[in-house]
């Protein structure tokens, strides 16, 4: 979720009913070498709580030192070690899901962070079910992380080699949830309220994490809450409501100055706008324009005709 779950996006997800959220992840080495420059990746508003800050790294002592800096400065509700990211530039630094190839190292990193933080902040970890189909290691990873003192593990039901293709394996997630004493949170292919209910009712997970689906539809949190409470599937937002949401997110991002001036903010928003536009009638031919949009006024001019009466 790097470049996605910034403070503005988290505000919108919280409004929609997200229970617990996490920041973008930050490199332990980046924290140690340039904390003030990297601090913006983990900034949050008090109303975002309960909230965790994610780190990744490959050196136990460095991860522990970075965790201490973050916790002392930001006081998150928990500190999450990312051992699930499949992105090559993270894996290439022996971070993220690369740690699934070296479970003793993953355990040592987790134990070092737990020792450093003590009672100051709970530690959690995010993993995948394994490196590839021949190396499924989620159960051993969960057992090792439990032994290291981690208080919860989130499991994405794909291997690193799958990236985001194929189907998430919830049977493996369920097996892990039944085998350890710490809470297991399931992740992967949660795209509808029905998916949330199915995971809760058919597996032993303590919770469900929504990732990529929220990038396109942050209102999924509200819809899932409504469905779990009433059994009714809410109507999807209308085209006008989705366009209003796109414009509101953009206004909030510009006003926050989180990314810088308007042009820099619009560049950061382009991927978000393209994600939100999926499924809105008439937006397909506009995607090249959205991928180059440079101002709020330009965005308004692109989207407003879609709201005009037929």
How is this fold's topology laid out?
Layout lengths: L6 H9 L5 E7 H11 L12 E6 L3 H15 L3 E6 L4 H4 L11 H15 L5 E8 L7 H11 L3 E8 L10 H10 L4 E4 L5 H10 L4 E3 L2 H5 L3 H11 L8 H18 L5 H16 L9 H4 L5 H8 L7
Parallel strand pairs: 1-2, 2-3, 3-4, 4-5, 5-6, 6-7
Helix pairs in contact: 2-3, 3-5, 5-6, 6-7, 8-10, 11-12, 11-14
Give a brief outline of the structure.
With 310 residues, the protein is α/β, with parallel strands linked by helices. It is 47% helix and 14% strand. It has a seven-stranded parallel sheet with strand order 1-2-3-4-5-6-7.
Cross-sheet strand order for the largest sheet? 1-2-3-4-5-6-7
Intertermini distance: 37 Å
Unreliable residue stretches: none
Q: Taking all residues together, what is the mean pLDDT? A: 94
Helix run count: 14
Structural class: alpha/beta
Number of strands: 7
Principal-axis shape: globular
Q: What gyration radius follows from the Cα positions, in whole Å?
A: 20 Å
In N-to-C order, the SSE pattern is HEHEHEHHEHEHEHEHHHHHH
Strand content: 5-15%
Question: Main beta sheet: strand number and arrangement?
Answer: 7 strands, parallel
């Amino acid at each position: 979720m790097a470049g996605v779950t910034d403070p503005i996006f988290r505000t919108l997800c919280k409004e929609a009913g997200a229970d617990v959220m996490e920041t973008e992840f930050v490199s332990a080495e980046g924290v140690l070498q340039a904390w003030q420059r990297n601090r913006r990746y983990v900034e949050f508003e008090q109303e975002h709580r309960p909230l965790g800050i994610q780190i990744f790294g490959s050196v136990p002592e460095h991860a522990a030192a970075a965790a201490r800096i973050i916790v002392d400065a930001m006081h998150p509700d928990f500190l999450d070690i990312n051992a699930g990211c499949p992105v090559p530039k993270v894996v290439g630094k022996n971070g993220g899901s690369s740690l699934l190839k070296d479970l003793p190292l993953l355990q040592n990193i987790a134990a070092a962070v737990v020792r450093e933080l003590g009672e100051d902040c709970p530690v959690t970890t995010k993993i995948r079910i394994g490196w590839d189909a021949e190396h499924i290691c989620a159960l051993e990873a969960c057992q090792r992380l439990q032994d290291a003192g981690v208080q919860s593990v989130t499991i994405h039901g794909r291997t690193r080699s799958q990236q985001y293709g194929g189907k998430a394996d919830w049977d493996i997630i369920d097996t892990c949830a039944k085998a350890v004493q710490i809470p297991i949170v399931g992740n992967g292919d949660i795209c509808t309220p029905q998916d949330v209910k199915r995971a809760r009712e058919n597996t032993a997970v303590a919770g469900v994490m929504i990732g990529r689906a929220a990038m396109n539809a942050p209102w999924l949190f509200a819809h899932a809450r409504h469905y779990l409470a009433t059994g009714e599937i809410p109507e999807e937002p209308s085209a006008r409501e989705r366009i209003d949401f796109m414009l509101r997110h953009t206004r909030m991002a510009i006003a926050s100055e989180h990314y810088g001036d308007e042009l820099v903010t619009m560049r950061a928003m382009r991927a978000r706008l393209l994600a939100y536009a999926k499924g809105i009638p008439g937006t397909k031919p506009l995607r090249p324009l959205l991928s180059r949009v440079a101002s709020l006024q330009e965005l308004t001019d692109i989207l407003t005709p879609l709201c005009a009466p037929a």
